[in-house]
Amino acid sequence: MPPTLASLVRHPGLKLSVLAGEDRLETPVRWAHVSELADPVPYMDGGELLLITAMQLKAEDPDEMSRYVRRLVGAGVVGLGFALGVKYDEVPPALAEAAKEEGLPLLGVPRRTPFIAISKAVSAAIAADQYRAVTAGFEAQRELTRAAIGAEGPAALLARLASHVDGWAALYDASGSVVAAAPDWAARRAARLVTDVERLRSRPGPASIVVGGGGGAGATGAEPADDTAVADRVELQSLGTGRRTRGVLAVGTGAPLGTAERYAVHSAVALLTLTTERSRALREAEQRLGAAVLRMLLAGEPDHARAVAGRLYGGLLDAPFRMLVAEVPSGGAAHQARMASSAADEAPAPAQVPAERPADATTAGTGTSVSTGTGVGTGTGVGTGTGAGTGMGIGRSTGSGTGAVPGTGPGTVPGTGATMAAGAGAAVGEPEPADPLATLADTMEAAAARTGESVLVVPDGERLIVLAPDGGSAVEACAEHARAVESRRGTKARPRGRGAAAPHGDELVIGLSAPAGPIAAAAAYRQAEQALSVARRRGRMLVEHEQVAAGSVLPLLADDAVRAFADGMLRALYEHDATGRGDLVASLRAWLSRHGQWDAAAADLGVHRHTLRYRMRRVEEILGRSLDDPDVRMELWLALKATASCTST
C-alpha cells in the first residue's frame, strides 16, 4: 500500500512527532512538498504532506492561521510538517489550534531531520508500492494466462480475476448474454447489467463504462445477503481489437481498482480479447473454406463438401439443417451503416497513451461514467505478447476448444506482440448504427456456442447465408431476434401494396428453408430465397418456408410490375366499357368466378345467358385470346384481382 502519515511517523530515521490530528494518521500520502508561500494552494494537487518553516507566515496570528489551514484542507493537503528550531523552537499555538480545529494532522520535524529526508522517504515508499503492484501484476498475468489456456478456459480465468480484485467477474458474448461468471452468484448480478452492456456494445471500441460506486454488500467475493441491494462498483470493458465489440468483461469491486488490480484487469482484457478474436488470415481462410463448402452443397456435391469441411463444422452436415438467407434493402440507413461498419472493421482501433494514474482517481463515487480509452499498444507493466485480428468475416461456432471462449473455436493464433495498455480515453461520440447482418450473425453464433452447435455463416455480398442445425438454438435465437426487433418497431405484417408505406431502409428481411440434408441443399436455398421474397413483400422480418403457402396469394400481387401487367392486359376492355357499349369487365369477372357456368353467371349479372355468351365472344375478339385456354383464364382472373386490389387501396 502507499505510504501513510503513520508510516512516516514510525520511520526510525525521521523522528517525527504528532502534534495534532492523531486520528487521521492512516491517510495515504501521494507526495511531500516544501513551500514557504503564504498561499501555496494553487500549486497543490491533493494528497500532499506540506513541509514549512513558517518564514513567510504570520504564524502567531490566530485569524491568519485559521484561514491558512482551512485553505490547505480544502485543497486536499493531508498533513503539515513544521520545522522545529528554525524560526520557532515550538509550533506557534495559533497554528496548532487551527490544525486541531480543522482536523489536519500536524507533525513536528526536528532540526536534525532535513526536509529532503522526508521527501526521499515518501518517494522510496511510493516506488516500493509501485514495484509491489507491478510484481503482483506480472504474477496475476501469469496466473490468468495459465487459467486461460487450461481446460476450463474463460471460466477459470474469471475465477482467478475475481480473487485478485477481491470481487466478482463476468463475461458477456457478442450478443450481450452472460456466458460465464465467478463466483457463481455473480451471474445474477451480471444479468442485471444487460442494459449497460448493450449501451457499451453500441459504442465504437475500445470503450469502458463504470457503473455505480462506493462499497456495500456484494462488492467482495462473498455472496450478499440481500441480492437486490448491491452497492458495488462495476467496470465494464469492451473486448476486441476492431471497432466492433466482440464481448464485454464486467468486474465488480467494493472500491476503485488499485494499481495491481488494474494490471490484472488489463491482463484479463488482453487474454479474453485473444480468445474472442481470430486473426484476419484465419478468418479469411475460414471464409474461403466455408464459401467453397456452400458452393459444393449447392452444386449437388455433398460428399465433396463433407470431405472439405472435415471436422471444422462438427456434425452440421450429418444431420438435418435449415438454410437461412438474410439481406438489408439497399439505400437505407442500415445499409449505409453496414458499409461503414465493414470499412471500420478493417481499420485497427486507435491505440491510446497510458494514463499517468488510474482512471479511478476521477470516477470514484456513485453514478455512471463513460470513457473510450483501453487501447491496444505497447503498455507499461503487463502484456500478453500476442495480438489478434479485426473484423467479422465468416463465422464458425463450436462449444469446445482449449483456451477459448465458448463459440470461438479452439486455440488462439499468435499475433503481433501487441499488449493491452491502460488508456486515457477520448470523449465518447454518438453511438454508431448497428449492422443488422453482423448483429444477426453474432446472435446466432453466440446461441450456437452456448449449446455446442456448429453453424456455417457465409457473407455473400449484401446477403448473409447461414446453415444451422434444425431445431437448434441458433435457429431459435434467429426467430427470437426477429420477434424482438419487430416488437421494438411495433411492427406486424405490412403488405407492400399501393398506398402502403415504403420499406424502411433498416429493415432486415430473413428467409428460412424447411429442414433439409446436404443432398437437398440447392432446394433448401431456393426455399430460403422464396421465403425471403415473401418476407420482403409482406413487410415481415422473418418468414419460414412453411409459411410461404399460408394465407392468400393475393398479397403477393401487390407489386408495381404485376399491376402494370394487369393494367396492360385489361386496358382494352376498360376502354370498351368506357364507351357505354356493355360491361365486359364485370361480365368477365362474373363468368370466371362461376367457373364458366353460363346460367349462374348470367343470373348474377341479371342478363340473359345469350347476352353473356355474346359479351364473352367480344372479350375474345378484343383481347385476341381464347377463353378456352386455362392459362388465359388464370391470367385474366389474377389481372382482375390485382386491379381490384389496386382500386381498393
From TrEMBL:
Gene3D superfamilies: PucR C-terminal helix-turn-helix domain (1.10.10.2840). Signal peptide: none annotated. Residues 584-642 form the PucR C-terminal helix-turn-helix domain. Residues 374-414 have a biased composition (Gly residues). It holds the Pfam family GGDEF_2. Residues 336-418 are annotated as: Disordered. Residues 336-373 have a biased composition (Low complexity). Residues 426-534 form the CdaR GGDEF-like domain. InterPro entries: CdaR-like_regulators (IPR051448), CdaR_GGDEF (IPR041522), PucR_C-HTH_dom (IPR025736), PucR_C-HTH_sf (IPR042070), PucR_dom (IPR012914). Transmembrane segments: none annotated. Coiled coil: none annotated. Residues 8-126 form the Purine catabolism PurC-like domain. Belongs to the CdaR family. This is Purine catabolism regulator. It comes from Streptomyces demainii. The lineage of its organism: Bacteria, Bacillati, Actinomycetota, Actinomycetes, Kitasatosporales.
